Automatic annotation (TrEMBL):
<keyword id="KW-0808">Transferase</keyword>
<protein>
    <submittedName>
        <fullName>Isoprenylcysteine carboxyl methyltransferase</fullName>
    </submittedName>
</protein>
<feature type="transmembrane region" description="Helical">
    <location>
        <begin position="7"/>
        <end position="32"/>
    </location>
</feature>
<feature type="transmembrane region" description="Helical">
    <location>
        <begin position="155"/>
        <end position="187"/>
    </location>
</feature>
<keyword id="KW-1133">Transmembrane helix</keyword>
<dbReference type="Pfam" id="PF04140">
    <property type="entry name" value="ICMT"/>
</dbReference>
<keyword id="KW-0812">Transmembrane</keyword>
<dbReference type="InterPro" id="IPR007269">
    <property type="entry name" value="ICMT_MeTrfase"/>
</dbReference>
<dbReference type="GO" id="GO:0004671">
    <property type="term" value="F:protein C-terminal S-isoprenylcysteine carboxyl O-methyltransferase activity"/>
</dbReference>
<feature type="transmembrane region" description="Helical">
    <location>
        <begin position="38"/>
        <end position="59"/>
    </location>
</feature>
<feature type="transmembrane region" description="Helical">
    <location>
        <begin position="71"/>
        <end position="90"/>
    </location>
</feature>
<feature type="transmembrane region" description="Helical">
    <location>
        <begin position="102"/>
        <end position="120"/>
    </location>
</feature>
<keyword id="KW-0472">Membrane</keyword>
<keyword id="KW-0489">Methyltransferase</keyword>
<dbReference type="GO" id="GO:0032259">
    <property type="term" value="P:methylation"/>
</dbReference>
<dbReference type="GO" id="GO:0016020">
    <property type="term" value="C:membrane"/>
</dbReference>
Amino acid sequence: MKISPKLAFFAIVSTLAYLGLAIWGLGGFAAFFAHAPLVIIALATLVMAIASLFTEVNLSSGEREDRGNRWVLPAFGVIGLLSGYLPAYTDRIDFWTFGGEGVRWLGALLFIVGGALRMWPVFVLGKRFSGLVAIQPGHRLVTDGIYRRLRNPSYLGMLVIAVGWALGFRSTVGLLLAALTVIPLIARIHSEEALLRAQFGSEYEAYCARSWRLIPGVY
């Protein structure tokens, strides 16, 4: 698979910038890397960035797009920037923090689990995985494997990552930002489901009837 130079550049720069915000927020390299769980989170972040280079994720509007949902992209961007810095900063000044190293280790574990859940569907969907809410050429439903009982496993992974990141810094503010992510995320899910329902009709309705939207047994 040929790796796009633009994708590689964006993945590397955005990842380093995100980690840079956290290192800055916590007070520098020495303070950040003094915590083994945060070292693991940093390594997991780099692994996900490298793995993304071997996917076919894109920003193609495909054959049909819900352009009205594009507002979620800057929303995710703003929340992401705040999440990169504020949890680490509140950890440094001990504002609304809780627990100790055990909480950090739990955060590292959740971050890794969330990362796997986030990336697995990206590889499964290939070119159908777009940053936009769109129907791609040759689009078909995937209703087996990781998608058998859960319609949005990658989005669940995104939330688990956010919670893991917050716990890595023992940050209540980080948890609030993770909760805030749910607003644009649910809006995106509803837009995607409306588009898929219009595209696949009864096939998609039947799939919805036997699967969960985001959290198995809950929603």
